Amino acid sequence: MNKVLFFAQLRERLDCAEITVNATGLTVFELREKLAQSNERWHKWLLDKDVLVAVNQSLATANSKIGDGDEIAMFPPVTGG
Q: Does the keyword Nucleotide-binding apply (predicted)?
């Protein structure tokens, strides 16, 4: 099982801070599709090309594989100055 955390504006838009899902063996892109299909309201936000994803606190690509017990974090692009 995997914990998926949502941060910042993404958390507000999804109205969810975290969920637990079985994402073992999926790519980051496949997980985003799976979650988007699970909740109609989430579709627009989770498939947004600008959403960043980290696996075990390291930035991941769409093709990164998810292992058993990995923690996934999703968040909007970070800006600063």
A: yes
